[in-house]
Amino acid sequence: MKTFYVTTPIYYANSLPHMGHLYTTVVADFLTRYHRQRGFETYFLTGTDEHGTNIERASAKAGRTPKEHVDYIVGELKRMFGAFGLDAAHGGYDIFMRTTEPFHYEGAAEFWRRAAARQTPKGRENIYKGFYEGWFCAPCATFKTEAEMLPPTEEGGPPLCPIHERPLDKVSEESYFFRLSDYEEALLSLYESRPDFVVPEVRRNEVAALVRGGLEDVSISRLKSSVSWAIPVPEDPRHTVYIWFDALINYITALGWGSERRKAEAGDLFEKFWPGVHLIGKDILRQHAVLWPAMLMAAGVELPRAVVAHGLWLDQTGRKGSKTLGNALELPTLLRHFKVDAVRYFLLREMSFGQDCKVDYEVILERSNSDLASGLGNLVSRTLTMIHKYFGGRLPADEIPEPRRLQAKRAGVDSDAQALASSVELVRDQFVQNVEEYAFHRALEAAWGMIARVDKFISDAKPWELARDEAQRETLGAVLYRAAETLRWLAVLLHPVMPESTGAIWNQLGLEGDPRRTDPAELKWGGLRAGAPVGEVAPLFPRIDKGKTMAEIEKEIAQRKEAEAQTALPPSTTHSGAHATQAAVPGAPTAADTKPAQPPTQGATEAVAPPAQAQAQAAPAAAQDTRAPDGVATYITIDDFVKVELRVGEVLTAERVPKSDKLLRFTVDVGEPEPRQILAGIAEHYEPEQVIGRKLVIVSNLKPRKLRGFESQGMVLAASVGEEGRPVLATFTEDVPNGTRLK
Ligand code: MSP
């Protein structure tokens, strides 16, 4: 049997997924279902990349060990992917691959050994020892990347640590290197001899130009004292494996390469499914199209079938959607307001595959209403409703008998289905060809062209008029048969895009068989059987009320931002325990540092149960991120705390804000040349005169925001007492100069 193996990138398990991650996974899911329809045996991998400093930091921030943290993120990710119908239970991925799997540790070590034992095309060793140079912050005990440092205070001086505001040290550390520079020619001839190795062409040209420009060797290990949450280097446990080197190998260890344990558990999947197609965002093209093939050549493993790179989802200002910027569309919001199939359709239809695409919730809503509610959904319901109404719910026949043909012609209906059948055949071929070329948007465009055509065919034939003339009964039947038959085709073509809705169309047409196993390329006209009963008509894509839904979405976004701002503050629930104390001391090892990275012995594949509070329908995603699996607020590190600037401020003036029961408006001296204007929601509990002259605690680096038309340039701290949260202002019993920083 023909086989098809597709992978998504394995996503970093440091934060919750957003629409960007969903996208690649939906495309992989689509391709898998499409290939299954076409008779391929398929294997679909998605999963998580779980090692490295970022994960270590994110886990310390959340007050968890790295393993606890990745388990939590994986639990959430699986739950989200499940909700979008992407998991095994819904016919989606076959493996949720995790780089903390013990079998992956085995396979990755084996890969390293093989590469180390072999030579480059130039006859030199693939892996050698050298020195890694970088900027190091001793109190943080980490190397900083370019993006993580502040510019030097004086020209030619060292850059600064943004946390400690001290100069970084240039440190050189022993490291293993992969001799990538010896693979330039091999890679160039690969791109040349296999033009489909990197898709689309623009990306192939990009990597070819990059390689032609010269390659440098890559540092593929770090001292364990620098990066401890990673796979140990075989035979040299003082070092750990560079996370990209570790992560890329997942694509083959998942199939049992290099691990007897995995082979025993899953069979020889490698033999059966490799080489596969790697679906990635263009942001990680170099690693997949340059480093990975060179690594495979080094270890003597067959290269993948293709590296297929899509573009990125951008916000309306053109910035890449990401968690850090907070501008990516959130999965819980998508789930709450749109049908899963509408989101899947949107993702595949809106983006011209390979190019970047701007997105916001409104465009999704509009497409759902126009293409799905008014387009496909309406065509299904109008066709089936008429079959119920005029033919008692039984499919009429396609044929118009000879004596009736002239009358049919007068009504503008062809005597046979030839013309319509040829145009659906054309759409079928265009659809298949576009999918094979990864032009999903064009495949869907073709399908919607068909919907428009059948809509017009029905409107022109005017079935409601035909129904009034007994002599046109067969003509009416043929019109409805043809419309219904086109719907059968659409159900097959669109099955991989909208598995649930096309299943519903299939059932409403009263069909037997299974769209999941019907090859779109083999569709033939006339599959519907005259006389067969059709099912109940149920709306597929209800219209979304734009005003109401957009207002709800905007409210959720505002709440999420608020929750995000809150996470910068110390948690309201305090805990005792080792993590908190360790985290509070700058430079002290975190819980993660003190634990060696070991392959987990059990439970690696099973994530912790999702927290009740973080159910997709209930809590905004940003809030979920700060919650431990038991739903209790978690720790922040000192690095988080120092982000909040607290200062002493003296209230110079205070007055009520017109038309507001709650707000007082102050001018506050925080030791700056000009006093600040700050608003506080305490007017129900304090008279303005009570506050004038008092020294309060001010959050002085809070982003200014407008309240009732006034800009508040900071926030006043108060205890929140009792059930109703009565504010009691935080103040000082001794005199302190205005502007003094609280630490
Ligand atoms: N862990 C690495 C990949 C290792 S693969 C061996 C990584 N992870 S990631 O969490 O950052 O995910 C990157 C992938 O997520 C991108 O390549 C892309 O597939 C998807 N996306 C994340 N944000 C995206 C957009 N804004 N738009 C489209 N997809 C993007 O890199």
Describe the structure.
It is flat and about 105 Å long. It has 25 helices and 25 strands. With 743 residues, the chain is α/β, with parallel strands linked by helices. 5'-O-[(L-methionyl)-sulphamoyl]adenosine binds next to strand 1, helix 1, helix 7 and strand 12. The site of 5'-O-[(L-methionyl)-sulphamoyl]adenosine has 21 residues, from strand 1, helix 1, helix 7 and strand 12.
How would you summarize what this structure contains?
By secondary structure, this protein is of the alpha/beta class.
- What's the story with the biggest beta sheet? 6 strands, parallel
Helix amount, in percent? Answer: 40-55%
Small-molecule binders here are:
5'-O-[(L-methionyl)-sulphamoyl]adenosine
Strand tally: 25
| Poorly predicted segments | 569-634
Mean pLDDT: 88
Number of helices: 25
Tell me which oligomeric state these chains represent: single chain
Structural class: alpha/beta
Choose one word for the global shape. Answer: flat
- Radius of gyration (CA) equals 31 Å
Strand order of the biggest β-sheet = 3-2-1-12-13-7
